[in-house]
Write a structure and sequence with these properties.
single chain; alpha/beta; about 250 residues
Amino acid sequence: MTSHDASLQSRPRPWWWWLYQPYKWLVVGPVLAASTLVLGGLAVALSRVLTPRRVGALCAVPWARINAWLTPMAVEVAGRPHIDRGRSYVVVSNHRSLYDILLVYGWLGVDFRWVMKAELRKIPGLGASCERMGHIFVDRSSRLAAARTLDAARARVAEGASVLFFPEGTRSPDGSLGEFKRGAFRMALDLGLPILPLTIIGTRAILAPGSRDLRPGRARLVIHPPIETAGWPPERLAELITRTRDAIAAPLA
């Protein structure tokens, strides 16, 4: 057993934990599975006649809010005035839990497309609906595949959508903020889009990576002022990454 696994299993259990277990397995789990299949299938069907923006509002947002409410996960959002509804962004966020997806889908309020690992395409319901809704699956097998990813992102931006990255590449195993990969920032420069940094707080306490110990909790989504990239020279890419990471890290301290 790794120290990470041990830390997950050693989380203190309050008195209500025992009462929550039947509810978790008999209500939250089945509703999450059923809503993913039903609303995912509905998203696939509606995507034939509606725009991805409309499908997201009808399927993705209710899916996120229903499952957050059932958990229950209380949500606080700070910084919403920093979003200009008339602009597209490269949205960049830390990643702490699967519940980050519910938080961003349900409460960000921006029409966006995920940039996600190609393996997620295989998840029943979720994979097909994400593909039909125009989310972008990353294939890192070659430069040609990476170029296709950029072309897909450019097409989504032309439709008025933003593009969302978790630049750490995976969920943080211990809650600390990892190093950022360069893909999101190169895309921001290539597409001439501002970066919209997000900080997610509290979701790891609800469901830690690699754990089934789901718990009720509070989550906070902090929306930071956009970082303009117009005229930003490519040779200063590292500076752009550092500036974005510092903004995301500040509320975590």
